[in-house]
Amino acid sequence: MKILKLSKLFSLLFALLLFGACSDGEDGAVGPQGEQGVQGEPGEDGNANVKSYLFEDQSFMAGEVPFDLPAVTQDILDNGVVLAYLRPLNANLWFGIPYYYQTSSLTVYGIFPGTVTLSSTFDVNNYDFRFVVIEGTDGSAFKGMGVEQELKQAGVDVSDFYQVADYYGLDY
To answer: Where in the sequence is the signal peptide annotated (predicted)?
Structure first.
């Protein structure tokens, strides 16, 4: 029993000495620079001024329907452009909006910060929608032109999603 008390006492003293030796001393000198790390794989090329948003399998009744697009800011409204496309169920092609078929139509009703509202004269069943949000840039290749004029000058038809995607390097 006496040995147990002594070992506890020595353990307590050792712990006190150990923690008492710790202090907030000055930091040492900075060590030498380490070796350069391994080069990572190159990333994909892209365009920071262009974003594509896909809404899959959308269904709604004829009328107006809003889509949340936080990328649509007041700056986009003032200087950029929002392009809209649709792809019907089982179709392989994207069609530009406004979209007209026989007596039916689907158009962009309004674009506001954070929202794009579409208006349809027909019930939409299982359509995919894609919105391409393009910022206007001061350093454009075609000074003094808006985004749509730049694209037209470059020979890009904005109603053709594939031409826009190829021009900006977007995925289909």
So the answer is: 1-23
